[in-house]
Design brief:
heterodimer, A: seven-stranded mixed β-sheet, B: alpha+beta, six-stranded antiparallel β-sheet
Chain lengths: 473, 450
Amino acid sequence: MLSSQIKSNEIVFGSCNKDLLEEIIYYGIELGADFVEIFIENTDNSSVLAEDDFITSVSPSFGRGAGIRIFKGKKDGFVSTNDLTKHGLMRSVSQAIEMLDITDNKRELFNGLNKHRDYSLSKKKWINEVPSINEISEKLLVSTKSLKKNNKIITRKGSYSRNLQEVIIASSDGTYVSDIRLHQTVGLNVIASDAQYRSSGSRRFGSSGMPNEFRLWDHEKAANDVFESSMNMLYADYVDAGQMPVVLANKFGGVIFHEACGHLLETTQIERGTTPFENKLNEKIAHESVTAIDEGISEGSFGSLSVDDEGMEPEKSVLIKDGILKKFISDRAGELRTGHKRTGSGRRQNYSFAAASRMRNTYIAKGEHSKEDLINSISEGLYCKSMGGGSVGATGQFNFAVEEGYLIKNGKLTSPVKGATLIGEAKEVMPKISMCGNDLELAPGFCGSISGSVNVTVGQPHIKVDSITVGGR
Amino acid sequence: MNPREITTQISKAADFLNLKKWDYGASFSNDYSVQVDKGEAKQLKASQKQILTIRVWNQSNLVGITTTSDISESGIKKALKQANIASDFGNKNESTEFSPLAKDPIKVKEVKKRNPVGIKKLLTVLREAEVKLLESHESIKSVPYNGLSESFFERVYANSEGAFRSYSKSQAALYLYARAEEKNKKPRSSGSVKLGYGADDIDIESCIKEASNKTISHLNYSSIKTDKYLICFSPESFLTIINAFSSMFNARSIIDGVSLSNKNSIGEKLSTEALNIYDDALHEKNISSTPFDGEGTPTKRLCLINRGKIENFIHSESTARIFKTTPTGHAGLGSKVSVSPDWIVVEKSDENFDLNTSLDHSTYEGEFVYIEELNAIHAGVRASQGSFSLPFDGWLYKNGKKISIESATVAGDIKYLLKNIVNIESSQEVTTSGISPHIWVDELSITGDA
């Protein structure tokens, strides 16, 4: 026993839980674990939906839970529970130990928890600084009203969600941290219709750690963007399928790098043997015009963190430098199983997921060309102004929906086209990114993967891909 | 607390807060899962979860809601208070009431609830399955995505007018996704998923065989020329398309203006008279069946398309009231109640004289594309516009040979697809999302690299 006296029989947020956490970790080590990690969270969330000129949904939620992870060698056992009492947490440790079938007598040392690193001190006031439901509702209604620009718009929606997550992370290497995370996101959507023609438009904005950000959101600009996009696409023809050069717009255009390459640079993919880049460190995997970065430190960006879900401060990781692969995105299990050093990228949706190596703010660095340079260089191709979602398959094949696209003819943007999907493989497409613009911008998004849905930022300047398969009709 | 105690606790706390009308839905689960990597245990997981969603009606009959995982006495009180505050923002334009069917008797299927087999047994079974799959063909080098899980859960619905329903069940799932590699060729991957009431009910051998056969069948691949093709949809891929466009039958989507249908679409002809589609949560093959929905309405078999025409929409309490009909057992429980299908059943009707019955995926010798599985549905479907452009796994059948198709998408319009059905095979197959025969569609666009 490391402490002479147990002060509490339950985790209490806002209090010192050191003795109880040490006792639980010690219990796991005594039972033969190589490593014990405890992740505890307390959440306070709310979301609001405005449809046309009415608030149609207000959904608050709150909860708490713990995820306990035990390592023995390279295998791990993970148990999650809503029971934050000493009894409940110890039962979870026992369950994880039992699952791993630990029988040897080897005992690791546990020297107690280090000094508490409390990242939450300046953030406790956030809960009182975020906009009230009333304030959110009023602004959302103003936003949906400003989408009412003509009779072709048949539905108008505005949505807001706020997630406030208080976490405590403690592990047998001495890690003991607390943090509060705040994420806010707001989006606008319209559907336009005229006879047999239909189109939609959407934009989403998001921030982390900035309670005032929603108040500063320029809803007029957002509404104009969404309206213009839906009107441009309303009478668009379907794109003709084929191989062609494309220019991908900045901001959310970065989803192509996120899906096509970023996921393949996570150590979970090395563990599975599903990345073509496993043995390519310090080799050329992309065009020399490509430098790509993953970091968790840009202030206010949706994927930024003070500390990751394993208690490590996030670093700025240059993944690709001038086309050469320099680093993988790694978490604790990734380091243990693949040897790649942790990068502060251990992330999870909530306590019910074990952390995994996940992207944070991921983007292609800016180049030297203007957007016009890229478009002028193409005689026939596609300009992808707004991207929808995408995914990457087990063999590295990716696909993205193009939400708003325009044909390029003789170096000029011409008619809008719909129904386009970009498909390919990272290994083949990365060397074809031949030009990068000078207009890097980031955009928020949600990434779903092995450890659930996490907030991320994607980004890039305008980029040109020399040739890619465009699915259409 | 058990469900009866939770109900009593909510009732007491609601009285204290002077809340006369409330309902709640709760779920409690224990899940266990294992993953392996080349014979070694990789990650073993167990979770205990509880979720409570409470709705309250204020004096203006506006609804507020709160969801929490804290089912302690204080957690319940806090949830009721928050829901009460949220009710100030309740939707004034569309009222919500208790389902009129929340106390109706439910059809109780034979409860096939299994006992846990335990993590050790799950691990042993999955290890053996991985070994067998790796040994099934020399080109299969790994099984990067695999898992065996068992879940035990209880769901409850109750309201302040005395409705109380609960059921508990068990479910297990096995997935094996293999990766095959051959020299100078791209890696190919495919897999199989099987469900059962418990781990002992899962047909492990067929999962291994299916994963192996599907993976190996993609080893010889080629690009396909961009063109229009005669397509045969596998049961799984056709159900994927129907589910992706289920907003056509969804009253909530119709009211929200995001459906291709409208209030007057009942009777609209969408397809050949040979096509029947049902939603059947209680189907005997549906392992995930639920006897009641989020509002406590009993689930049932409902005809969506009868002889090619729209027959019914799926409803919650509020959409049913707006459409002047009864709820159908498809509601969630939320501030804005969602509506979604349960388990789709596709059948050939007896009006099937216009079908080209020579089109059979196992005997047809002409050229066609077989779509085994559609991918990236969230990215490639525009349900409100009716269009889709989706990557797929499949084969081109040509001159008596079949070859796997590399990197291709199929694109089209759901109404065009349904109108161009040229055959519905007789034999249905059970999948994880429903039952369907193979469906043949003429003239759909495929984009390939060739």
